[in-house]
Amino acid sequence: MKARRWLLGALLVAAAGGGTYAWLELRPQGLPAGFASGNGRIQAVEIDIAAKIPGRIRDILANEGDFVTAGQVIAHMDTTQLEAQRHQAEAQRERARISVETANSVVRQREAERTSAQAVVSQREVELDAANRRYARTDQLARGNNPAASQQTLDDDRARVQGAVAALGAARAQLAASEAGISAARSQVVDAQAAIVAAEASIQAITADINDSTLVSPRDGRVQYRVAQPGEVVAAGGRVLNIVDLTDVYMTFFLPTSQAGRAAYGAEARIILDAAPRYVIPATISFVSDVAQFTPRSVETQAEREKLMFRLRARIAPELLRRYILQVKTGLPGMAYVRLDAQAEWPAHLAANVSPNGSP
Fold first, then answer.
1. 277: Cβ contacts below 8 Å, ≥ 6 apart
2. Exposed e or buried b for every residue in 308-324, given b needs 16+ CB within 10 A?
3. What is the pTM of this model?
4. N or C: which end of the chain has fewer CB within 10 A?
5. CATH class of the domain whose range is 81-212
6. Cβ of 81: how many Cβ atoms within 10 Å?
7. How confident is the model at residue 3 (pLDDT cuts 50, 70, 90)?
8. CATH number for the domain formed by residue range(s) 30-77+222-350
9. Are 239 and 223 spatial neighbours (Cβ–Cβ below 8 Å)?
């Protein structure tokens, strides 16, 4: 029993010694002046692939972990109802086109009626002029001591004048009615043409919805997870897939006030991942938060203000990411180093050894 306890203790001491040695070998070396570092985690821009309109998912063509390219079809929504709506809109468009032809025929008919009414008006004007002349002659003949025309004839001619005036008024009323008919027929043409435009707009809108029912990847990336499954019904804007853009990858880390204030946009940075400590990845500072992330209860003294932490992003160059896209993984922890002084030289252990044009 004592021998076993002694052996177990020896193994524990050996393990502890080996762990201490490994930590001493792999721990970050001290930073010279003009540099700062912070713990961080690799992140990437996430994109939700969502349905534009409510509907049922017909199929999903990408699985979690798959790489997809920009424009690649990754899912289809069911479009049966949309296809039916488009057929209905197309039928309405054809009906509107027939209505335009019918309305144009009515316009031509009303124009012919107007021509006929104008002829009748001209005829009635001639008849009225003749009746007025006849009446004037009869009126002259009926005057004097020995009239050449009887009073009856004068009365008959006067009645003819009044009848001609009434006939002319009726003809002019008919002409006005034909003019109104033409205006009404032309308005029907405009309505029918507007119905065609409305139907075509409906067809275009439905076609756009049908096209949008084919979900495509907007960028190159990797499918992170499926939010829904084929056969499920999603609402408008309902997420179907989530992808990460592997060409827009960065590490988020935090620095205190004194260091964050010296970190410039575009400053050189280095990233070392815990999973691959031998590789030093070049990056640049693309974001410095203007709001402190960790705020103490009081910020009245300088000592307390120094406790404020600001969030930064060290962005990896897209061309480097494209070269190693199969190895890019989000969520990996590591360390980010930033050069605060542009004149400072990077220490040897932070010299970048991952190049976009060569192997690490």
1. 26
2. bbbbbbbbbeeebbebb
3. 0.63
4. N
5. mainly alpha
6. 13
7. very low
8. 2.40.30.170
9. no
